[in-house]
Design goal:
The protein has 266 residues and is α/β, with parallel strands linked by helices. 32% of the residues lie in helices and 24% in strands. The strands form 2 sheets. Strands 4-5-3-2-1-11-12-13 form an 8-stranded mixed β-sheet. A 5-stranded mixed β-sheet has the order 6-7-8-10-9, covered by helices on one side.
Length: 266
Amino acid sequence: MKKQYKTVWLSDIHLGCKDCKAEYLLDFLNNHQFETIYLVGDIVDMWAMSKQFRWPDSHNQVLHKIWQLSQTDTTVIYLPGNHDQPLQKYNGMEFGHIKVLRETIHVTQDDKKLLVLHGDQFDEEVCFGPFHAWIGDKAYDLLLFINRWFNRIQTFRGKPYWSLAGHIKKHIKGANLAIDRYKQACCNRAKTHGLDGVICGHIHHPEICSKRDVIYVNDGDWIENCSALTENEEGHLELVYWTNLAEKAQVIPIKQAGKSKNSQAA
C-alpha cells in the first residue's frame, strides 16, 4: 500500500540537468500519496538546458506524474526559484490546477505557521562577491562530476546511491559559513513576519534545526541527496531520503531539531 502524507515539499529537482535523479523521485512519487505538494523551486533547470538541451524520458515522466496528481485531489503549488526564474513573473496565476507563488505560508496540522520559499531571495545577503561565487560554481561542478562517477562505480558494485558530494561539502569551511549565513537570512525573514519557522531549498543541504527559536527546515534536493520533507496527519515534519529505489533509506523527524543543529543524511 502507498504511504500517505498530508503534505510534501520537493525542491531542486533540476529536470533537464544531467545530475538529476529523476528515477528516484518518480519512484518516491509512485510509492506515496499526498494531499498537497509544494514544488519549492528549481524544478526545471532552464540554466542547464540553455547550455545543452537534455530531456530523458524519466524527466518527462516526473512532470507527467506531477501534472497527473494535480488533476486529482492533490493540491500542487509551484514556487519558482532561480533556475526556473522565468516562471516567477506568473506569481499568483494558475495553470491547469497548479498555482504559481513566489512565497507562501503553510500552517501545519499542529498550528505551526511556516514561511515557504525557494531561498534565492537571500543570494545577495549570503554571497561573498562575484569571484567567490565563480569559484563556488566551479567547485560545485567538480563535486557533482566526482559524485556522478563515484555512484556509477557504486551501481556497478551493487551498492546503493550515496551522496559523496554532500559528504565532501560538509567538510569545506567556506561552504559551512555560507550555509550558516543562508540559514540566518531565512530565519530572519520568518521572524520578521512573526512566523514559527521557514521551509526552503536552494542550497542542496537538507537539514532540520532551530535557530533562535525559529524552526529552519531545508527540504534538500534531487541532485545530491534525493530528499523530501513530509508532514503527516498530526503535523509532524520529517526529512525522507529516498536513496534506494522503493526503499526509505533514512528519516529525520522534526522533534530532533532541538537536539542537533546538523541533522543530515550520512
